[in-house]
Amino acid sequence: MSVAGRLRSLVPAVVVGAVLVGLWEGLVRLFDVQEFLLPRPSSIAASLAEQWSTTADTLGTVPLREAGLNTGVIAVTGLLFGVVLGVVLALIAVRFTRLGDAFTPFAVAINATPIVALAPIFNAWFGLTGSFSNQAVVLVVVFFPVFINTARGLTEVHPDQLELMRSYAASELTILRRVRIPNALPFFLTSLRIAAPLSVIAAIVAEYFGGPTSRLGPVITQNASFARYDAAWAAIVVASGIGLALFLLAVALEWLATPHGRIDQDRED
Amino acid sequence: MADGGDVTEPAVTLAGVTKVFNRGTADELTALEDIDLDVAAGEFVSLIGPSGCGKSTLLRLIADLLPASAGQIEVFGKSAATARLDQDYGMAFQSAGLFDWRSVAANIELPLELMGWSKADRAARSAEMLSLVKLDDFGGRYPRQLSGGMQQRVAIARALSFRPRLLLMDEPFGALDEMTREHMQNELLSIVAELDTTVVFVTHSISEAAFLSDRVVVLSPRPGRIHSVVDVPLGNRTAEVREHPEFFKKATEIREALRAVEAGA
What we know:
The complex is a heterodimer of chains A (269) and B (265). Chain A is mainly alpha-helical and 269 residues long. Chain A is built from 11 helices and no strands.
């Protein structure tokens, strides 16, 4: 699909989004819903504009721009560490299958644990002042989908392709480089698409449990506790924006890295 | 298409070849027992038999993708292992086994790349092979853009890109529709004739075996043994051969051998 065609395909989604926001605004006004239950989109937008670079100093929070930047950095760095760890361990698990068999169950067990529940523990381990407690939560949350998907892509190679490579007298390392890694690439990119927005969720939830107040999590909780719901919503909008941006980045990466995945449309017969 | 009589060195020699899977366990299975078979250079030999007769296993033993449990396997006078390391054979499977992320040309060039050919030499050879399988304009496409028949042609081009003297094929046309299949059979014969390639071909299609082969080896199952060998002296395989009475006679002969196999004779 061309870039223009791709943009055109976004039009219905944009229209639906605009209609939904319009409905929200209209219904809240029509039924005179209290602002603390559900602020109007226009109030949220006004609050966002107001707090973007300044702050209501009575709460001691920071401007949304700064809070968003801090949380974004935590999400992105945690994401990067988690992705690197997931890929490295997947490569090790495939290269040394016995080792992989030994630690895959633990990876699965970690995934079954509600990891954000560990946030207070991480605070105790890594301290409340720095970023590492929050980053560690993001890292662990991101690690699992990347590890499992990449390991699957590295192992789920068609047996004929492996036999073919062996018929060429190719070494295991050559098979890894020429077959397993390219085979795993789409799996890895899919996991990245899952992990990217997950990293923002993990960062914010981790921030709820503690850490410096100059991040989106505390901005949301503090504004909510002082009934400044429009400001809390404005911070949520910023968080959504970061999540969406990371997701779109992952989608773009996927599109760029797998040219062969884009050509399903024009099969020759 | 040699009839084998005037050639000195056989391409493949199997003597007393036996393959037992899971030896010494409860799942022990004798897939092949005491197989003796010579394939002459330039010959086209098909292996046919009911499922479980070990025909694919036999092909993998020749390819040294599986070790034999007993017996001797020689490919061009060398051990199967040496022949594999020397890249004396090319291989094609039912799933074309193309790499989705490589263009058609890059798929054909893969074995050459592994052999360390220069980029220019690889490009020249892949262009030549594409022309041979009549896909001249498709080098830049990706496998998923091609139909099943076209993918199989790419697989054949890849298997023959480094000009091996032996081609091992495991039901390469099994997933194709009948018309495409016949078309591919004609093309395969003209390609292997042009490159003077010996072929060992696994199939479960009687007409395919009769049309392609100089000899058809009928295997019986559990354990896999050679039941009979049918000579198919049909001369030059033109499209008309498919309607020739002699072709039907040979197909009937193969069919009766398969019936005898299934009846346990």
